């Protein structure tokens, strides 16, 4: 007969009550300003973000990671991206921080007129770069776990989860993805890391029977297995939203909040400035992003390190 394994509730009552009455909120890593700061990322939590190809999932997650590092000045992050070279991620963030379009940066068409903007972007990168690391192959959870431990990373990004192996043999892809999420869940519960997992979506059918990535999206849209949505604390899907022509070069998108284990769900309405790889709050009136300057508030946070002494976001607990 298998030995029972349980914990009487009375054993946790006193410690739980003391924690409740302490007035100290749970540790949270703020991942942006404006609407994005509402995304709940913290130790022991798994945040799942899905979206169709090319919608900007990696750009959004990269922005969240760099901003979290800027705000929480002792936080370290480990990024496992199976499709994009680390240099490409840095180029996207340089575009965001400097305000120089990504095409100019990628094609190395920089000249003297970009000097001040480049200096501003480089300063922003320098403020966080020593606390960021990228996983090298093999892209499996065992390597991710060891790499995160060696770097002392408390924030882990998996981009994307269907391409990262859990190890062992599996009968099919669904079983493999399910084991991956189960392993991630155990890792966060035991080690207290925060995980942001990017996920591919399955195509659904629109009202005319055509294959679509945007119509009828739900928790079941995450490709692979129901373990993805069951294992996540919060689940989001990034989708187009509205008429892009109303907002110049920026693309209106919605970060649809489908699941929240610890609170209420509420969609985030954003604009994606694709040339500069920058997500911002969607304004009431259209904004001309061709002439917009980079986010001054974020640069102020980078320079001032405003969260260094802010216990609300867990600096004292890291």
Describe this structure in words.
This protein is of the alpha/beta class and 318 residues long. The chain has one domain (26-309, 311-315): Rossmann fold (3-Layer(aba) Sandwich). The protein has nine helices and eleven strands. It has helices spanning 10-21, 57-71, 86-98, 102-106, 115-126, 141-151, 173-191, 227-231, 296-304, and strands at residues 46-51, 77-81, 132-134, 155-159, 194-199, 204-205, 211-212, 234-240, 251-260, 268-273, 278-281. The strands form two sheets. Strands 3-2-4-5-1-8-9-10-11 form a nine-stranded mixed sheet, sandwiched between helices. Strands 6-7 form a two-stranded antiparallel ribbon. A hairpin with a 4-residue loop joins strand 10 and strand 11. Residues 301-318 have low confidence and may be disordered.
CATH architecture assignment: 3-Layer(aba) Sandwich
CATH class bucket: Alpha Beta
Overall spatial form:
globular
| Coarse structural class | alpha/beta
- Measured on Cα atoms, how large is the radius of gyration? 20 Å
Question: Which helices and strands appear, and what pairs or packs with what?
Answer:
Blueprint: H1 10-21, E1 46-51, H2 57-71, E2 77-81, H3 86-98, H4 102-106, H5 115-126, E3 132-134, H6 141-151, E4 155-159, H7 173-191, E5 194-199, E6 204-205, E7 211-212, H8 227-231, E8 234-240, E9 251-260, E10 268-273, E11 278-281, H9 296-304
Parallel strand pairs: 1-5, 1-8, 2-3, 2-4, 4-5
Antiparallel strand pairs: 6-7, 8-9, 9-10, 10-11
